[in-house]
Amino acid sequence: METLSTFCGFAMAVQLTGVALAAWRARRRPGSSALSARRPPVTLLRPVCGLENAVEATLASSFGLDHPDYEIVFCVASADDPVVPLVRRLIAAHPEREARLLVGDDRISVNPKLNNVVKGWAAARHDWIAMVDSNVLMAPDFLGRSMARWDERTGLVCSPPIGVAPANLWAEVECAWLNGFQARWQLVADTVGLGFAQGKSMFWYRPLLDRAGGIDRLAAEVAEDAASTKVVREAGLSVRLVDRPYPQPLGRRTIGEVWRRQLRWARLRRASFPLFFAPELLAGGALPIAGAVVLAANGVWPAEAVAAYALVWYGAEVALDRVSGWPLSVRGLAAKLLRDAALPLLWAAALAGDGFTWRGNDMTVAAEEPGRLARARRRVGERIRELAAGWR
Questions:
Q1: Average pLDDT over every residue of 195-206
Q2: What is the pLDDT of residue 328?
Q3: Listed residue (172, 116, 133) closest to 327, CA to CA
Q4: Is the pLDDT of residue 367 over 80?
Q5: Which of 8, 29, 68, 165 is the most exposed place for a label (fewest CB within 10 A)?
Q6: In the chain, what percentage of residues exceed pLDDT 70?
Q7: Integer distance in angstroms from the first to the last C-alpha of the chain?
Q8: Among the listed residues 270, 273, 264, 263, the one whose alpha carbon sits nearest the alpha carbon of residue 377
Q9: Would you state the pLDDT for residue 146?
């Protein structure tokens, strides 16, 4: 029981430290850099595919950036995509902005988004390039925030998505994953010097990537953000995150959509960064609180301590939501509980398989893992599948 008590105490210390660091990032005064003072011209690349939630608002936000000189390049794989008329209408409605739509699919990888954006990268007129997903709502100071994080040790500036405008419970669960779990821990990692790229928003200096082999180098991994992280680190530089990440309007979600998306991301993290994926099992509140219950049941902790433990655990996360300006509601608290209850299952499911489907494309991370690690992981995955079959 002493080991379990130590684990519960350590988990709480990690939880509170993570919340404190993320809250500090949200509250600190906006910085500046030599780059943000110079404000060089920028190419904004926005790969588009389909009519996503709030897509008109997110794409329209491309035209309202507070920056003196930037071009907008929309990229779509097919001229028949239903988003094309919307993009053309937005371009026509903003003649004051230099904007164009490029159509075509350059199959350099298994990653459809990377294939879509290659033509935009080649056509970009400026060396500073921001690649931003179509479902990101861009604030007027988007480029200023990104430039403020760039210094001589930086190779890439990114932003995790912050879920906003959830319209039902499962969208709230997605918010809990995006905000309190992924964004928080990515901000913490960046604060301690271990920043990871996030494909939602990547601000590049083209000559840097060209020296590493160009945009084709990002095809080395299934996920372009994992490849970007490795390219930057190999150059002896760091990935930085903006202090106040950019929002992604969620709308309505189904439980299946949330699960499939989180499983895809978990399998990608497992394959690309296994040492950082492994501790995710312990990152949520489910196992520490279960440990507190066991301690109380055995008389090691008083029963009241379990309630206090859970209150402090989730109270800290609610406080982070408030400080950061992230969505906050009673339903959101229930979503955090559902997220943490699902986390051990998600972790096991990520170990148990390699495949996923993204935008209709069947993909796998099987080739990403080193051979010895892959064999060990597959043995564990087979055991997990056997146990799951036994429960049916």
A1: 97
A2: 95
A3: 172
A4: no
A5: 29
A6: 93
A7: 32
A8: 270
A9: 97
Q: Identify whether the C-beta of residue 324 lies closer than 8 Å to the C-beta of residue 26.
A: yes
Q: How far is CA 352 from the centre of its chain?
A: 22
Q: Measured between alpha carbons, how far is residue 135 from residues 57, 201, 310, 340 in Å?
A: 9, 10, 34, 25
DSSP letters along 374-388, please?
A: HHHHHHHHHHHHHHH
- 121 contact partners, CB below 8 Å, separation of at least 6: 45, 129, 131, 206, 215
Residue from 18, 5, 2, 6 nearest 280 by CA? 18
Q: Compute the distance between CA of residue 316 and CA of residue 61 in angstroms, rounded to an integer.
A: 33
* Domain locations along the chain: 2-21+274-391, 30-268
Give the span between the Cα atoms of 183 and 166, in whole angstroms. Answer: 17
| Single-letter code of the amino acid located at 105 | D
Residues counted in the chain: 392
Q: What is the DSSP letter of 45?
A: E
Q: Is 30-268 a domain of CATH 3.90.550.10?
A: yes
Q: Does the pLDDT of residue 371 top 80, yes or no? A: no
As to burial, measured by CB atoms within 10 angstroms (0-12 exposed, 13-18 middle, 19+ buried), residue 220 is middle
Average pLDDT for 34-38: 96
CA 186 to chain centre: 8
CB atoms within 10 A of CB 390: 7
* DSSP structure class, residue 245: P
- Would you tell me the crossing angle of helices 371-391 and 330-352 to the nearest 10 degrees? 120
This prediction's pTM: 0.91
Decide if pLDDT at 340 tops 90. yes
Rounded CA separation 259/365 (Å): 17
Q: What pLDDT shows up at residue 198?
A: 95
- How would residue 31 be classed by pLDDT, with cut points 50, 70 and 90? confident
Section 148-152 average pLDDT: 96
